[in-house]
Design goal:
By secondary structure, the chain is mainly alpha-helical. The chain has 15 helices and no strands. Helix 11 runs antiparallel to helix 12.
Length: 405
């Protein structure tokens, strides 16, 4: 299998199916917690459990990805996640699903994700030519989004019939299929330098941070991304409560919000794949931040009868996401040597997850006291301000022009 397009399609088709099955299970667990507790704080804690391993292990996992065979790492991570999911089925044969077990499963599944995410991000530039990385990032997000859309829809259809147990079976099957698609594709290996071979794990993590720091545009984008994650991720986690509690809807309304967001991501990813964004990728990312801030802020200002407008705004939020994530990912894949990509993406994921975790804690407390809609309004205004800061930074606007080895 020598054609890079075929390799890319095979791997990411398997990933899309795995994402589909994981989205079904994830949505089922979220609805289970929403229906049984109705608490913004509980939902935030559940999301926190899913992010904590990335905070604690992301940098170490990324450095290990650079040491290990990336293909086997991806397969092992997928199968580990499948085994953890099976514990839900075994437990539910004997008792009702408790809150603490949901937390534990989300935590352990995230350990697998901490290794899988930097591995597949580091594998992509080994297969895809540099000139196609941004467009492939768009197609990648479209494939992922197809999984999210179908996952939310299937969860809405099957949750009342199958419950969590049926969703777990789908998740395990998806993980196994994703492992098979990775196994059949030949992935080039990366040669390590003598200095890398002799250095310890902490040295390699430090090296990853040094590489980002030396590229001022990527370094600025790293911290803009941290701030963006702190503000936006809690908003996304509270979609169900916004739909069901603030607007007074049902699980169907929650599903509509998730699906419209995912449709926006799908269309945004396709447009990015076909077009590639503005010639200046820094401007493309700034545009995405501003559009997201407008949509989030208006959502928080809507009356309780404004669910239809909220659904449209969810579409715009989703539409903006690929135009930030796609160019950012392709810039790192393009400007950083392949042998360092695992630790760089691991460090990036660790910092993003810390921002998500902190944001979830703050928003869980804040939304519990004053309401989820006020949090949406507050975050929208600050995200717009963040977009202005990014625009005023020359090394962000001109990130494409920076030299890379």
């Amino acid at each position: 299998m020598n054609n890079w397009k075929l390799k890319f399609l095979v791997i990411w088709s398997g990933q899309a199916i795995s994402i589909l099955s994981s989205a079904v299970l994830q949505m089922a667990l979220i609805w289970h917690l929403t229906i049984t507790t109705g608490s913004a704080l509980i939902l935030s804690l559940a999301s926190l459990a899913g992010f904590l391993p990335m905070v604690l292990l992301g940098s170490f996992a990324g450095a290990l990805v650079d040491r290990w065979n990336r293909k086997l790492t991806m397969i092992g991570a997928d199968l580990f996640i499948a085994v953890i999911s099976l514990t839900l089925v075994i437990y539910m044969l004997f008792a009702e699903l408790p809150f603490w077990l949901v937390m534990a499963v989300l935590f352990l599944r995230s350990i697998g994700t901490a290794f899988h995410t930097p591995a597949i991000s580091a594998v992509t530039p080994l297969i895809v030519p540099e000139s196609h990385l941004t467009k492939c990032s768009g197609y990648t997000q479209s494939l992922q989004t197809l999984g999210y859309i179908a996952g939310a829809s299937l969860a809405a259809l099957l949750y009342p019939i199958w419950g969590v147990r049926g969703m777990v079976a789908l998740d395990v099957g998806g993980a196994v299929l994703a492992s098979i698609t990775v196994a059949v594709v030949k992935i080039p290996s990366v040669t390590k330098t003598e200095q890398e071979k002799s250095g310890g794990l902490l040295f390699e993590i430090k090296e990853g941070y040094k590489i980002i720091y030396e590229n001022k545009g990527l370094f600025s984008l790293l911290w803009i991304g941290v701030a963006f994650a702190f503000l936006y991720a809690p908003v996304n986690a509270l979609f169900p409560l916004m739909s069901m509690n603030y607007f007074g809807g049902s699980t169907l309304h929650a599903s509509i919000a998730e699906v419209t967001f995912s449709v926006g991501m799908l269309i945004g990813g396709i447009v990015l794949g076909l077009w590639g964004g503005f010639k200046n990728r820094g401007i493309t990312m700034i545009f995405a931040i501003v559009l997201m801030g407008i949509a989030v802020g208006i959502s928080g200002a809507l009356p309780i009868s404004g669910f239809i407008v909220f659904a449209i705004l969810c579409f715009l939020m989703g539409l903006s996401a690929p135009f930030y994530n796609g160019p950012h990912t392709s810039l790192m894949q393009e400007k950083i040597s392949p042998e360092f990509l695992g630790r760089v993406f691991g460090l990036y994921g660790s910092l993003m997850s810390f921002a998500l975790l902190l944001g979830l804690v703050v928003c869980g407390i804040f939304a519990e006291i004053v309401g989820v809609n006020i949090w949406f309004l507050f975050c929208g205004v600050i995200i717009l301000f963040l977009g202005l800061i990014a625009f005023l930074m020359p090394n962000v606007r001109n990130v494409d022009k920076e030299h890379h080895d």
